[in-house]
UniProtKB/TrEMBL annotation:
UniProt protein name: Mitochondrial import inner membrane translocase subunit
Gene that this sequence comes from: LOC100823472
Upper lineage: Eukaryota, Viridiplantae, Streptophyta, Embryophyta, Tracheophyta
Domain notes for this protein: The twin CX3C motif contains 4 conserved Cys residues that form 2 disulfide bonds in the mitochondrial intermembrane space.
Function: Mitochondrial intermembrane chaperone that participates in the import and insertion of some multi-pass transmembrane proteins into the mitochondrial inner membrane. Also required for the transfer of beta-barrel precursors from the TOM complex to the sorting and assembly machinery (SAM complex) of the outer membrane. Acts as a chaperone-like protein that protects the hydrophobic precursors from aggregation and guide them through the mitochondrial intermembrane space.
This protein's GO CC annotations: mitochondrial inner membrane; mitochondrial intermembrane space chaperone complex
Length: 88
């Protein structure tokens, strides 16, 4: 049985553990969000910082990409903390 199956009974014959299922769903959503975030940030920062694509990044392009990614990560953290603290 794969991770996307949703059996009505577990292999032991008892109903599935709802908490464990929710944890699994949260983990899958977090992984999907992280992949999407990295792809989006990478594309946006690359488009902003790399003006002449070549076989390697120049020093200024490399530092621009690094700063851009750091800003996105910092901004996402601020937004996440604000959203989660307002839900409590």
């Amino acid at each position: 049985m794969d991770s996307f199956s949703s059996p009505s009974m577990s292999s032991s014959g008892s109903p599935p553990n709802t908490e464990a299922l929710m944890d699994q769903i949260k983990a899958q959503l977090a992984q999907a969000y992280a992949q999407e975030f990295l792809e989006t940030v990478g594309n946006k920062c690359f488009a902003k910082c790399v003006t002449k694509p070549g076989s390697s990044l120049s020093g200024s392009e490399s530092s621009c990409v690094s700063r851009c990614v750091e800003r996105y990560i910092e901004a996402t953290g601020i937004i996440s903390r604000a959203l989660f603290s307002s839900q409590r």
